[in-house]
């Protein structure tokens, strides 16, 4: 009988998986037969960050036979199969969503959809406003307003620049000893940030398309790297972040500023859209809830997959 080994998936290319054992050895593995996760319809049954057990056959190839229970994961709709989900990564301690105001511009819809996905497992998320060296005074003021909005509802924020080093040490401190997921649009500078944190990784850095002023994909597959006592999960840049179908009461819970009013409305099943005596609508009117956040709540509630590229930071 083959010996059973334990490890963590460090990279997935769809058919091959690089698994790191507790001794630090990397073993290339495949899935055994029709490997499936019970109850989860997903394009990728095993993902970066998963803890697995595997055997090694006589040919030297590893075969994953067991997927350990996940403590959490972040997923989104598969781009081509809207009813199928694509899991980005699993067993995450925290997420860093890298945001830029230009080259390329990050949409507010994208930010809020990512935050909803993270809230599903209460994954702490930090908004990293990157490329601080290229912004005008007005754009810096815009960042300050966004920081105010998101910090007020419980998210942390950070300003960074790989050009002048702003925020890099603080980013390193926040990552220490944790499994950190990096996500964002293509071209926002995820790989450049990671290279600055750990130059030995030497990740490929892309350029911005002159035609569309959008980021060009450089990271093809999600990968995990050890940095000090912690780990970084670098993910491919995504243009849109389509959410899986949530129940209305789940969506209410995944917006912290709305969640705090859930028990204050006249009706216990209030959707916060049209009902009389709605505490959320009153809070919106009083300026306690940011209009764009409420608008994105409605879009997600009504499963309105708007063109996120057009819903820009203003």
Helices and strands, with pairings:
Elements: E1 5-12, E2 17-21, E3 26-31, E4 51-56, E5 62-67, E6 73-77, E7 85-90, E8 94-99, H1 108-119, E9 125-129, H2 137-152, E10 156-159, H3 168-175, E11 179-183, H4 190-197, E12 223-227, E13 230-234, H5 248-253, H6 256-259, H7 279-285, H8 291-301
Helix pairs in contact: 1-8
Short structural summary:
Helices cover 23% and strands 23% of the residues. With 314 residues, it is an alpha/beta fold. The chain is globular and about 70 Å long.
If you had to describe this structure to a student in words, what would you say it looks like?
The chain is of the alpha/beta class. The protein has eight helices and 13 strands. The strands form three sheets. Strands 10-9-8-11-13-12 form a six-stranded mixed β-sheet, with helices on both faces. Strands 1-2-3-5-4 form a five-stranded mixed β-barrel. Helix 1 packs across helix 8. The longest helix is centred in the middle third of the chain and has 16 residues. It starts with a strand and ends in a 13-residue tail after the last helix.
Task: Work out the number of β strands.
Answer: 13
> What form results from the Cα inertia axes?
globular
Helical residue percent band: 10-25%
Q: Please count the helical segments.
A: 8
Task: Tell me the Rg in angstroms.
Answer: 21 Å
Average pLDDT number: 85
Structural class: alpha/beta
Which strand order does the major sheet show? Answer: 10-9-8-11-13-12
**Order of helices and strands, N to C?**
EEEEEEEEHEHEHEHEEHHHH
Report the biggest beta sheet as strand number plus sense, adding barrel if it closes. Answer: 6 strands, mixed
Instruction: Report the span from N to C terminus.
Output: 62 Å
Any low-confidence stretches, pLDDT <50, length ≥5? 206-219, 307-314
The proportion of strand residues reads: 15-25%
């Amino acid at each position: 009988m083959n010996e059973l080994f334990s490890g963590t998936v460090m990279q997935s290319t769809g058919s091959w998986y690089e698994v790191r054992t507790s001794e630090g050895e990397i073993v290339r593995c495949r899935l055994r037969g029709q490997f499936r996760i019970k109850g989860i319809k997903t394009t990728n049954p095993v993902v970066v960050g998963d803890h697995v057990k595997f055997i090694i056959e006589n040919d030297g190839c590893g075969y994953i036979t067991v997927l350990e229970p996940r403590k959490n994961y972040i997923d989104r709709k598969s781009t081509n199969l809207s009813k199928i989900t694509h899991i980005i990564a699993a067993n995450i301690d925290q997420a860093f969503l890298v945001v830029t105001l230009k080259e390329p511009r990050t949409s507010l819809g994208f930010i809020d959809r990512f935050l909803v996905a993270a809230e599903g497992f209460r994954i702490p998320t930090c908004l990293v406003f990157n490329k601080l060296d290229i912004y005008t005074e007005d754009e810096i003021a815009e960042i300050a307003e966004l920081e105010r909005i998101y910090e007020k509802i419980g998210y942390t924020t950070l300003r960074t620049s790989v050009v002048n080093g702003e925020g890099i040490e603080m980013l390193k401190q926040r990552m220490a000893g944790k499994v950190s997921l990096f996500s964002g649009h293509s071209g926002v500078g995820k790989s450049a940030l990671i290279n600055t944190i750990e130059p030995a990784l030497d990740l490929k850095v892309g350029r911005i398309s002159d035609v569309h002023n959008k980021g060009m994909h450089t990271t093809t597959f999600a990968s995990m790297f050890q940095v000090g006592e912690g780990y970084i999960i670098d993910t491919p840049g995504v243009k849109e972040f389509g959410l899986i179908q949530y129940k209305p009461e789940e969506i209410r819970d995944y917006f912290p500023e709305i969640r705090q009013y859930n028990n204050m409305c006249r009706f216990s099943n209030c959707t916060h859209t049209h009902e009389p005596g709605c505490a959320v609508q009153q809070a919106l009117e009083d300026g306690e809830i940011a209009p764009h956040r409420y608008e994105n709540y409605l879009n997600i509630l009504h499963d309105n997959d708007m063109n996120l590229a057009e819903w820009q930071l203003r």
